[in-house]
Write a structure and sequence with these properties.
The structure is a homohexamer. Chain A is about 30% helix and about 30% strand. Chain A is of the alpha+beta class. The first copy, chain A, has a single domain, classed as 2-Layer Sandwich (Tetrahydropterin Synthase, Chain A). In chain A, strands 3-1-2-4-5 form a five-stranded mixed β-sheet. In chain A, helix 2 packs across helix 3 (about 100-115). Chain A is elongated. The mean pLDDT of chain A is about 95. The interface of A and D includes residues 1, 58 and 122 of A.
Chain lengths: ~140, ~140, ~140, ~140, ~140, ~140
């Protein structure tokens, strides 16, 4: 059984701030620094989704990359692109939009849809800047 | 006279929207699409500043890159980083923050400070995403 | 008059070979080496299109980047993507598909369509690999 | 025992199509879309090979990277570069050249040669485009 | 328990040579080739540090990335940047500065400091060039 | 006459320091900071060479890129790669190896050799780090 991992990169541009509504503005600035700026800031986010499976003998595919891309676009890119992550996204309501939390929520958005097509979702990578990124394996700890 | 061009890349993360306050919300969406999202979106902006001059015989420098970086940070990165380009930046007041307009305004911010140290500012490049960028030569048209 | 240059990157994947039909196979291999491989090879091409103009006072745009992208896609990407540059592309008939020639032909494909919308096409950049690229300024020689 | 993983990136440019010869042309287009274009398309492939081992006390090496590069060039890059993956490569005969299948075949090409020099092959990564890539761990599933 | 992995990239520029002082110059050149050049060569090193943990419910953080960056800068970048890895670095004394050995030593520099702040160091990646890189998991072998 | 510009990227890794031998060590540190480190530091340099010309009707080439690459390797990469720019390179003797000066010297190394093959050398770009780069147009000032 020759398991292969396929990965698809997509991108979205969004505004956010790191801000805990239970805290005073002063405490938010103390903890989050300039990331707590009241009027928001933003990023070009890159998301890399990994699905594993055995290549189908007739297509050589784990799953159709076009379909994989369409699923990511429908359930992640459309709801997040050119949006405010604190205000505009139903599935982020009540969640502080750190990159860590984003990765967990995006996993939950994608898992059932991707796993319905012959692959198994196994990693979400989010790049917030060229220096900061996050990997989430559905809570598993491969290392 | 061996003129050389030196370039320094810096980065800032900011929120903005493309929105003409003289227009209705509907017209803004019609013209700017999702870039007019009321609650903002954002980008990881890269800025590349070019200065030309003749290398100094004792240092081999047009101007000290550390000084060049400090000037860009003081007059551009500090005022723009983790800010809202429509709301938070005095020198952008009343200016629609398209990448084109940003390039012009950043030139005006930097020109006198860079030119005071032996180089001549000659290009501002701004990368808004990996697919969209802008060059400004102070209004000159080299090609 | 504050002229700004805007640039849009698009991509296409294509097969080609460097092959002069007037020559023998041996001479083709002698001149073009492995690029003359009879059964083709291919590339992930990147194309960067530059248009210049003065930002419109009401939009801050030279021209709408979405429209610019649509024009590039209609007249360049659709005809070239997942195609054989020697066999499948009407506007490349009889033209040896070197990167140099590609740049000239792509300029001719785009010029009238882009110039009809307020900008002036002024550069085509094509990246064939991470080490080889070409710039074409419509025959002009800015340097 | 301080196991370290070393990685070497190499590149090749090739033509291919996704095409199952047992199917009609229509079914191929239905399943593979534009990737089934009869006259081929192509890519700049990047391959990243990972070998693990314990650094030798006298050299600090798992294995000589120059030797590792030479092995990858002899058994993978030479046979694939500037070739047609469906027609020109003996070890791909009868194999549909999806990126998934390529990764498996490249592993088989390299394993014995790399493992003869003190390292253990443990991952093949292939990047087909900037958005699509594949990892293969010899069938193992680390996550 | 939703474990997430956060990664921070930092950079340093250094000189080094691959040279075993117990060997003759001739044997060094025989084993290390041009990397043994007596007068040194150098690199722009990139280091990517990975820490895992469960996001804190009040901040969404594994650990503050600003703090993580400060720790990497204090214990790795400051001692290595613009230095000679064979001559200038106390914690590299007697160690042949191959990328493999660098990764091990950097792990030892960082582990206790990073683990004191709620995360667990789990990977050091060093990129020596765009083609050569190394991963170290503290001696663990996840695959 | 359809002039096209072709560009070739090559790379070398070298040690250097910014140091004026006529000055005291203290003054060197005052002017050049950590770049004056007595025991050197180093970089992965990228060099991008631009040649212009009219594509030949039988080959579509300005000049053979393989030949262009061979010339750059013979006259620039071989003498500089894995070397100390202050000590090991005859054509840098007496020249302070700033990136600006490197660009001028590399132009002088390449001009006659490249211009003998149908193209005209018109730009040397050197990237010293991902944030610092230099362009040299043979002393011309296109903007």
């Amino acid at each position: 059984m020759k398991t292969v991992y396929i990965e698809r990169r997509e991108r979205f541009n969004a505004a956010h701030k790191l801000y805990n509504n239970k805290w005073s503005p002063e405490k938010n600035v103390e903890v989050f620094g300039k990331c707590a700026n009241a009027n928001w800031h933003g990023h070009n986010y890159e998301i890399i989704v990994t699905v594993k499976g055995v290549p189908h003998p007739e297509t050589g595919f784990i799953m159709d990359l076009k379909l994989m891309s369409d699923i990511i676009k429908e359930f992640v890119i459309e709801p997040l692109d050119h949006k405010n992550l604190n205000l505009d996204v139903p599935f982020l309501e009540g969640i502080l939009p750190s990159t860590e939390n984003l990765a967990i929520v995006i996993w939950d958005q994608l898992e059932s849809h991707l796993n319905a097509h012959g692959g198994i979702l196994c990693r979400i990578r989010i790049l917030e800047t060229e220096n900061n990124f996050v990997d989430y394996y559905g809570g598993h700890e491969p290392f």
